[in-house]
Amino acid sequence: MNTESVDFSPEELERFGANYPFRVRAPTRRDRAPARAGGSPTVTDVSRTAFPAASFLGELAADDLGALRAAARAHRYRSGELLLREGDAPRAVFAILAGTVKLTKTATSGREAVLELRGAGEVVGELGAIDGQSRSASAVALGEVEALVLSAEVFNQLLRERVGLAHQLLITEVARIREASGRQLELGTADVTGRVCRRLAELAASHGVAVADGVLVRGAISQQDLADWSGISRDGVVRALGELRRLGWLDTGRQRLLIRDLDAIERRAAR
């Protein structure tokens, strides 16, 4: 594949950093799931073992991951920086190497709703690249984010040429549909604490690091982000976190969560 055919507008070149020479930092332990130790992704050597096993990049075959890396450009995003904006044309796809991206949608009232968080190993912006429709949501960096960026045209070319990559993307989308169905059921059946526990269990799986006292989750997610993601008020999150601390299941601090009893959190989430 000729990667020189990637064609961004001048504004996108500035946003995506296509001409920005830098070396991608390898994800730290906080960017990996507790059950999966792994290598250190760089521009020249992205190892799937560095990502959570169930993630898009983590499940790609080595040759498919290498093809994706070769077709993309690497870029670092500052905290709060937009990767893509709701309503924009779908000109690029992002594969997250490190950090967390918040997907949001703005209601007609102007209120911002958090749809999902995407972490290391996940792909963002792929739906618009496939169907050509405008962006259905915005994506903003929560803390520093590093990603591989490739044009929609090149991404679709990869999907046509590499059956394994296309199949893994299909598996990823099916998993997300199942997850969305579960969220719909959760809204009608789970109480506030149960919803928070489900989000905490998901954070542990995608951003947790196994430590002596439990699972440590570091990151820039705020109580408000957690509330929006759970579909509850911030006060509800504060009360739920307080309850979990009193039970001894959780410790909280500035941009960190220590889940002391993940099994208990998961059981409470399943109620």
Q: How would you explain this protein's 3D organization?
A:
The protein is an alpha+beta fold and 271 residues long. It contains ten helices and ten strands. The chain has helices spanning 10-16, 56-59, 62-71, 126-131, 152-161, 163-189, 192-207, 223-230, 234-246, 262-270, and strands spanning 73-77, 82-84, 92-106, 112-118, 123-124, 138-151, 208-211, 214-218, 250-253, 256-259. A hairpin with a 5-residue loop joins strand 3 and strand 4. It is globular.
Structural descriptors:
271 residues; alpha+beta; Jelly Rolls; Arc Repressor Mutant, subunit A; six-stranded antiparallel β-sheet; four-stranded antiparallel β-sheet; 10 helices; 41% helix; disordered N terminus
How many separate domains make up the residues?
Answer: 2
CATH C-level class of the largest domain is Mainly Beta
Superfamily at the CATH H level of the largest domain? Answer: Jelly Rolls
Strand proportion, as a percent range, falls in: 15-25%
Q: Which stretches are poorly predicted, pLDDT < 50 over at least 5 residues?
A: 1-45
Please tell me the overall pLDDT. 80
Structural class: alpha+beta
Describe the structure concisely.
With 271 residues, the chain is α+β, with helices and mostly antiparallel strands.
Q: What's the arrangement of secondary structure elements?
A:
Blueprint lengths: L9 H7 L39 H4 L2 H10 L1 E5 L4 E3 L7 E15 L5 E7 L4 E2 L1 H6 L6 E14 H10 L1 H27 L2 H16 E4 L2 E5 L4 H8 L3 H13 L3 E4 L2 E4 L2 H9 L1
Antiparallel strand pairs: 1-6, 2-6, 3-4, 3-5, 3-6, 7-8, 8-10, 9-10
Helix pairs in contact: 5-6, 7-8, 7-10, 8-9
